[in-house]
Input
Amino acid sequence: MNPAGQTLFPADEAQLAEAVAAAVAGETPVAVAGGGTRSGLGRPVEAGALIDTRGMSGVLFYEPGELVLSARAGTPLSEIVAMLDAEGQELACEPMDFAALSGLDPAEASGTLGGMVAAGVAGSRRIRAGAVRDHVLGFRCVTGRAEPIKSGGRVMKNVTGYDLSKLVTASHGTLCVLTEVTVKVLPKPETQATLVLHGLDDAAAVAALTKASGTPHEGSSFAHLPEGTSPDGIARTAIRLEGPEVSVSARVADMIRDVAGSAETSTLDAGASATFWNDLRDGLPVVAGEGQVWRISVAPTAGPRVMTEVRAAGVPVLAHAYDWAGGLIWLRVEAAGGAHADAIRAAVAAAGGGHATLFRAADEVRRTVPVFQPQSPALAALTARVKHAFDPARVLNRGRMREDL
Amino acid sequence: MLTMPKPDEHAFARREELVARLREILPAASVIDSETERRAYDCDAFTMYRQLPLVVALPETVPQVAAVLKLAREMDVKVVPRGAGTSLSGGSMPLEDGILLSMMKFNRVLEIDWENRCAVVQPGVTNLGITKAVEHRGFYYAPDPSSQIACSIGGNVAENSGGVHCLKYGLTTNNLLGIEMVTMEGEVIRLGGKHLDPDGYDLMGVMTGSEGLLGVVTEVTVRILQKPQTARGLLIGFPSVEAGADTVGAIIGAGIIPGGLEMMDKPAILAAEDFCAPGYPRDAESLLICELDGTPSEVDALVDRVSAIARDKGATFLKVSETEEERLGFWAGRKNAFPAVGAIGPDYLCMDGTIPRGRLAEVLTGMQALAEKHGLRVANVFHAGDGNLHPLILYDANKPGDIEKAEEFGGDILKLCVEVGGVLTGEHGVGVEKRDLMGTMFDETDLKQQQRLKCAFDPTQRLNPGKVFPTLHRCAELGHMHVHRGQVPFPHLPRF
Output
């Protein structure tokens, strides 16, 4: 048997397949990681060894005119972002950088492309530009059957066979180990600005964001930091506008006219705007400090109701913020053995449904509290069959998403 | 020629019993039994192949759908789900030994949630029907396949349908928030909702484009968008295909993502002009239709930039729409390209490969060589922004051997697409049409893994068999894992 904690660095798909085959043969589950920035996400994995994917690194091709980039899964995301930046392009879904949440130094720790896909956590622009899953065009991987497979391609439009790119995105390494990923990239907007409304309470803020997101002024992000979360203690409701300079300034004016009402307003220029949304992408206004962190996804207008229910249930809230026009809640609560999971999930259900993910908590808490939203029996059974189709011996990230997966 | 899986004799033998049991589940008018009436359902829009369905069922409620599927499972009978039947690849072609499950009685818009910018609809609602239901408040549903007046949203989910606005606004999969589906076990499962991210595995993403092989969609929640304030069109003619293709790359390379960016080659331009005279330049070798949308100031600035790029690339014809009527006129030729080519036909076969855009000129040249080899003509319309190519192969169904030649030519074109890094189908689906070409893109291991996913949803493979996969494997056989026992764990690997 392998000593626990052994780390394997496959250099290519063949070595990776060999490692997985050995895991199956030895009935030894393996943990899969890239930069390790997301290792606190999901349940603690039962594993006898770790597969570190960073040996499979390097960009395979990048064609800016075709809006496509393909790289080995272990390629640091920072390297890819820099390469895109040099051509005025970006990953439009704004993948979250987990370093800060995980207590790592963002300057030192870099997630990988594979990690980005495996976690599938997008930033503020998700509401307009789509999620990580919407930008994955194709991939290669080694399944839990130790077989290399491919799916998708390098073109924008492709319905040849099942869309496995969607399936592997946010599957947290429980179906296969990614070896190559091809993503759609997009031009960076020429500039951006953020309109800020001051002093609104949660309900008024989300009402303003609802209105703003229903206008044709093409806002790309809609967030609200309540007074307890905002740096200077004044609640801020933020609407980002991106595009050519001429259009951005006109649309800021249009937004003020149509949405601001009697609220005091200010505008963040391009630099301040970018910082604001990068911070929010990584949850910074909420996650800094002690306590457990939840990330809750609901219908946008349901956001404030969830918070009302959470407080009514007596959950000790430390900080919260809304993104996605109210549809995403970052929530930090005082640590507890049960992470207040029942009360928080009941609040989500009462507000019309959605899901709550325990984003940060101690290992022993994540081992016992369902990290991901519990599913109906039929869906849970289907999920288990899908896992079985890819990884029948449950050797890949065993227990990461659910105890039985 | 296409071969379908060997029909189940037991299904024919028990047809009367099946019909009687369906009548117990469904209202009288929802079971179509007579041959004459079944004949109306014998093909979809891929009309080359026809099969008379064993029986047609038109359920009206979700419990009825579940009951029909449970019955099919119990009697071991195949089921082909179908929306409006506009599939161009035979995805909803009936099976002679199977129930054709039409979802067209699910035709209601259930809810429009303006504040959350989504609509909850039944699967039989047409694609355009969604836009019609929301346009009075300035909203629309973005994916716009050319069959949008007829095709159903349930079918759009099954095929992951696209349209001319995909590059900027995405395909069906990018515009869905939730679905409700019934499995072959008769279980009702909800995936997603009005929130943005899926929880657990993204099975809604898997269902989208699964061609009716995994489950039957009974409800769909789609995102609705505010219509852009302004849209203007440009018609740009070039003396060569290369110049047109270069211009597409230059526009996108300059950071401009047009709402629509379409290209036509000379045969398609001439066919459109003969058909409806949209004012296309007859002397151009290639034509671009570029639509820019957004706020008025932004659109005006972009029109100038695109015009400059086009001139720089040697455009010989350039016209910018000044009115909404003129913009729609630019699209008239493109939107009528299929009937226009049909008019010079007499028949045509519509192909649907996607290629890396940069290889366009090469692919079109290769295609002309193939046209000469097969002795048939071809016209091309092209979703240039996203690389999706629709070669229209002209043939005469009344001429012996022409159908076979057209099919061979089409197969060669798709192989060429795959060779240059593209794929077999961009938006029409594999269905039966491209089923036997799957091996040019995927190896046996890839295909078996896809079929294992099917087994997770439909272990007895009763749902739409004979589509998508060239070889049917039994689920039990696919489940075996061949790993050598007794190996030393992790040999030969660098360790740290």
Remarks:
- Chain A is about 30% helix and 25% strand.
- Chain A touches chain B through 111 residues (CB under 8 Å).
